[in-house]
Structures are given as structure tokens and as C-alpha cells.
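Wed. Picked up where I left off yesterday with Large ribosomal subunit protein bL33. The coffee machine is broken again, so keeping this brief.
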Amino acid sequence: MSNKITLACAICLSRNYSTNKNVSTQSTRLEVRKFCKTCGKHTLHRETK
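Structure written out below (C-alpha cells, as returned):
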């Protein structure tokens, strides 16, 4: 079963992206490098609660 999660920028903490994550196969928090509109560059985005 997949849950909807939100990704937040590690630098400015703005919540820019949302995606789905399969909870049964992935137990760790998702970390992806994506473009942050607020910072204006590619930064690390982490899964929020």
C-alpha cells in the first residue's frame, strides 16, 4: 500500500513536492535532489511527517 508523502527542502524548509511511497517495501525516509523554486538551485529534499 502506498501513502502520499511531502518533500521539503533541506535548506529553506519549503514544502515543494508531493509523491507516493510504498510503505511495505521502503521503511527509511526518502531523500531526493530536486530543484527548489525558493532557493533557485538543486537541493536535497527530504520526506516530512
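Quick read: The chain has a mean pLDDT of 94.
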